[in-house]
Amino acid sequence: MEVILKQDIPNLGNKDEIVRVKDGYANNYLIPKGYAIVANEAARKMHAEMVKQRAHKEAKLREEARQLGEKLKAVKIVIKTKTSSKGKIFGSVNTIQLAEALAEKGFSIDRKQIQIKEELIKEVGSYTAKIKLFKDISVEIPFDVVSEE
Length: 149
What we know:
Blueprint: E1 2-5, E2 18-20, H1 23-33, E3 36-38, H2 41-73, E4 77-81, E5 88-93, H3 95-104, E6 114-116, E7 121-123, E8 125-132, E9 138-147
Parallel strand pairs: 4-9
Antiparallel strand pairs: 1-2, 1-3, 5-7, 6-8, 8-9
């Protein structure tokens, strides 16, 4: 039986894919739980139109993400934090502080989109972070951690 998935299912497929599964799996699990619908002729037509519309929206979002990435590359971020006399940070710098610094510059980036290459930043210095803007669009931005005077 062929079904159209309504959400990502591990080891089976991603949302809006048409996949072939055994009848029992579809009738007893996927369809009753709302994870899939039967891929009949009407559902296929509706699915094709939805995919077409989503592709148009996705192209627009991809272009916006690319433009935002170009703007982010030009931004210089400095995070001020309390440090000891030897340059050690009290605590550590994390994605929340980086997101707040970006917000001060006028960029609303969710902290979950930010990945700092080093696990813990506990000293002043220059670092880089990777910001995932879209599915396959990400940008690396440099930032400095300095002592709060």
